[in-house]
Amino acid sequence: MNLAKIVLRILSIFSNSKKYVMRLFFYSVKWFIIPYLVAFFAGSFFLVRFTKSEIHLWVNQYHTSFFDTFFKYITTLGDGAFIPIFVFVMLFIRFRESILLVVVFLMSGMFVQILKRLFFSDISRPAKYFEGNQSLYFVPNIEQYCCNSFPSGHSATAFCVFLVFALVSKHNWLKFSFLILASLVAFSRVYLSQHFLVDIMAGSFIGILTVIYCYPIISRFKNVWIDENIRTIIRKT
Questions:
Q1: From the CB of residue 185, how many other CB atoms can be counted at a distance below 10 Å?
Q2: What does the angle CA 95 – CA 101 – CA 104 come to, to the nearest 5 degrees?
Q3: Alpha helix stretches (DSSP H) within the chain
Q4: Buried b or exposed e, range 194-221, using 16+ CB within 10 angstroms
Q5: Backbone phi, then psi, for 64, in 5-degree steps?
Q6: At a CB cut-off of 8 Å and minimum separation 6, what does 186 contact?
């Protein structure tokens, strides 16, 4: 067997291995991915049928003091400040997914910022877009930003983080619950008039694609300790 055949054989093994890993991945998170795709296509229909301003004004007319408070706090789950807490929790589940969590957060955040600042820097947020529109409701005590609306960083963070948590969850209802939680974080950005629907859809898609891209790479790590967690390390000491 010559060198070329050896190389092709190695590439074939790697390709088959990667396909197997991804099949396991999608099967594991189908209760997250499938409902997400349904919601994504439904959102796409609204974006085709209506303008982003029409959708935003329609959503904006429905507000209560309860949801003002609820979304004001739940939106913080998409803030990077919560990542150390999420990683700490994941350390008690498995080190591999802890590493994955850090990597996907950094990669999705970097990609979002590149899009925001280099390619879509001229896209205004709702506060600036509707400037002078007295009918637009703003939740009290929420700072309104003017620029870099597309895509939503909070949505990207929420979806990449909670998809990783869905990945390690054993129960389908819990996987679906993580999708609901990620969706609430994303929707909060529209409710709080920080983003438009198209912004959060793009952000959520980036978050999911980042996990899909990074998962097979992290799965190839073969260190003994990587599939352990803090609890197993403590037991051994």
A1: 27
A2: 140
A3: 3-28, 30-49, 52-60, 65-74, 83-91, 95-114, 126-129, 153-168, 172-191, 197-219, 230-236
A4: bbbbbbbbbbbbbbbbbbbebbbebbee
A5: -135, 165
A6: 78, 152, 154, 155, 158, 159, 200, 203, 204
User: CA–CA separation, 186 vs 191, rounded Å?
Assistant: 9
CATH domain 49-236 topology: Vanadium-containing Chloroperoxidase; domain 1 (1.20.144)
> Do the Cβ atoms of 204 and 68 come closer than 8 Å?
no
Tell me the pLDDT tens digit for each residue of 39-81: 999 999 999 999 999 999 999 999 999 999 999 999 999 998 8
Q: Around 45, how many Cα atoms within 13 Å sit in the side-chain half-sphere? A: 6
Contacts of 80 (CB under 8 A, 6+ apart): 105, 109, 157
